[in-house]
Amino acid sequence: MIYRLISTLSLAILVGCLTLQAFAEDSKNTANKVANSTNKVTQTHFGLKELARTSQLLQRSAMDLIDEVEQTQVVYGTGPQMLGAIIRPVADFPDEKREEMAGLVPPSKKWVKYIVKQMADLMPMLENDINGMNLPENASSEITGDMHDIQDSLAQIKSHFDNLNTVIKEDKLDNLKIGREALAIYDSLTKINGLTKRMSHILIDTSS
């Protein structure tokens, strides 16, 4: 009788220990999953921050290129209330006179080459930031959709940058051709910047 009681108690203790061990393992696994999820969200936040920084630097270069090809001619004029000659940009003149004087200053090959070199250095960084983005496993459809749009924008940027490199190899630099490709790159980067901000806000809202 005593032997049976001891055996029963021993079995109950063993079952209790196994249950506690299983509970501890489940708690540990749950904690690890939460930690991994938190780490991935943190990694995604960092990745978005790096992408935004690269995108903004590349966008600044694109704007520098746009500014270079949008310079208007400067004309000289005198007036009854003015002493000597003055320099005035074409944009300051009335529309009827602007047609006669309007024109874009040919872009400087030196500066175009310098700016495009900056953009070329940033392009692989932008691509790595996008392709290396580590999204959380439980990322919402909004996050994955925005990431898909960012990848589409990257493809457009690469296409326009290839066109830009072809255009600047022509014997005579064409303001409009260069400006068209630079503006397309700038617009795609504006879209990427907006999407990265949106993704960051969504991650903050869902992780809080």
> Any idea what the radius of gyration is?
31 Å
Strand content: under 5%
Helical residue percent band: over 70%
Q: Please, what is the CATH homologous superfamily of the largest domain? A: Nucleotidyltransferases  domain 2
- Give the overall shape, derived from the CA principal axes: elongated
Total strand segments = 2
Task: Indicate the topology.
Elements: H1 2-69, E1 74-77, E2 86-89, H2 95-101, H3 109-131, H4 141-167, H5 175-207
Antiparallel strand pairs: 1-2
Helix pairs in contact: 1-3, 1-5, 3-4, 4-5
Structure report:
With 208 residues, this protein is mainly α. It has two domains: 44-71 and 107-208, Nucleotidyltransferases  domain 2 (Four Helix Bundle (Hemerythrin (Met), subunit A), Up-down Bundle), CATH 1.20.120; 72-105, no CATH class. It has five helices and two strands; from the N terminus they run H-E-E-H-H-H-H. Strands 1-2 form a two-stranded antiparallel ribbon. A hairpin with an 8-residue loop joins strand 1 (74-77) and strand 2 (86-89). Helix 1 runs antiparallel to helix 3 (109-131), helix 1 runs antiparallel to helix 5 and helix 4 runs antiparallel to helix 5 (175-207). The longest helix has 68 residues, at 2-69. The protein is elongated. Mean pLDDT is 79; it is low at 30-35, 80-87 and 96-101.
